[in-house]
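Propose amino acids for all 216 sites.
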């Protein structure tokens, strides 16, 4: 399963990149706004750190604006993926970009037919938001399972990118159901290699070594 980081914070991206297993980055307008930086400048800076897919979301909500903004974004770097909303205009823009060979990430996906439609339009990625579905007391993982089944039934090549990840258990469940990609906030990535038994075990090994062989 591919691992993307879901942030526009450069330090977090650099730290995750230094772990050696980062495959890409997703951003959104809220995440870039939080950083208080120029929108396209930050996307450019991210592309200088990570060579894998970097999703840059359009602000426009109508087809013409999406196409104009997406074309500007696609020129920033060759690893840009134009992020479009799962709306009718987003679907139309997705098809246009697919015909032009521009990769897209169809975001804000909350039901399986949105995922089926954008796959038919040639989306590179679809982003179901697991956490936001859980937040309204429904089952975000069920959406991932449904999209996986639909894509497998018909051989759609669009990658399922689980978004709005809240905790490591989401990531484990995504891996178990065959999700292609997860995009994860840095604070959750930091938990991936943590276990108290690892820490305790390591402390015991070192204490036993020192007792037997000395040294600091
Ligand atoms: C995905 O591309 C989005 O940026 C993100 O996962 C949204 O997550 P949130 O629900 O935590 O805002």
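Proposal:
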């Amino acid at each position: 399963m591919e691992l993307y980081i879901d942030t526009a914070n450069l330090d977090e991206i650099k730290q995750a990149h230094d772990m050696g297993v980062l495959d890409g980055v997703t951003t959104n307008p809220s995440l870039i706004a939080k950083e208080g930086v120029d929108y396209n400048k930050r996307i450019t800076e991210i592309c200088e750190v990570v060579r894998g897919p970097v999703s840059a979301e359009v602000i426009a909500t109508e087809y013409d604006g999406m196409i104009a903004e997406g074309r500007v974004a696609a020129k920033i770097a060759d690893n840009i993926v134009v992020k479009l909303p799962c709306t009718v205009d987003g679907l139309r823009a997705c098809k246009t970009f697919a015909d032009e060979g521009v990769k897209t990430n169809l975001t804000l996906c909350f039901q399986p037919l949105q995922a089926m439609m954008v796959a038919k339009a040639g989306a590179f990625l679809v982003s179901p938001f697991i956490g936001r579905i859980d937040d309204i007391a429904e089952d975000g993982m069920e959406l991932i399972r449904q999209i996986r089944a639909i894509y497998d039934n018909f051989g759609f090549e669009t990658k399922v990118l689980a978004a709005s990840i809240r905790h490591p258990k989401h990531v484990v469940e995504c891996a178990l159901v065959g999700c292609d990609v997860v995009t994860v906030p840095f604070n959750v990535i930091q938990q991936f290699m943590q276990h108290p038994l690892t820490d305790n075990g390591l402390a015991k090994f070192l204490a036993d070594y020192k007792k037997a062989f000395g040294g600091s």
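The first strand starts at residue 2 and ends at 6. Residues 196-213 form the longest helix (18 residues).
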